[in-house]
Amino acid sequence: xxxxxxxxxxxxxxxxxxxxxxxxxxxxxxxxxxxxxxxxxxxxxxxxxxxxxxxxxxxxxxxxxxxxxxxxxxxxxxxxxxxxxxxxxxxxxxxxxxxxx
Length: 101
Hints:
- Keywords: Membrane, Transmembrane, Transmembrane helix.
- Residues 1-27 are annotated as: Disordered.
- The chain is an all-alpha fold.
- Helices cover 76% and strands 0% of the residues.
């Protein structure tokens, strides 16, 4: 008889536990720390001019993301106000029209 029966519940349970204990995300804290260490080492190896260029590009990219975020928030607020105005217009002009029964 085969001791590792494919329908063995304890084996199935062990496999599930192993699957749960494995790191599920490539963005685990160890991976992020390792990446930050690599970036820091690379940055420290640059010349002063290179550091200045990298810092400048980082600031420009940061402002670009900030601009993108603020435009998204502005768009969402505009849509909310427009939706509210349309709803109020519907409620007061269409729904309360006395000519309709």
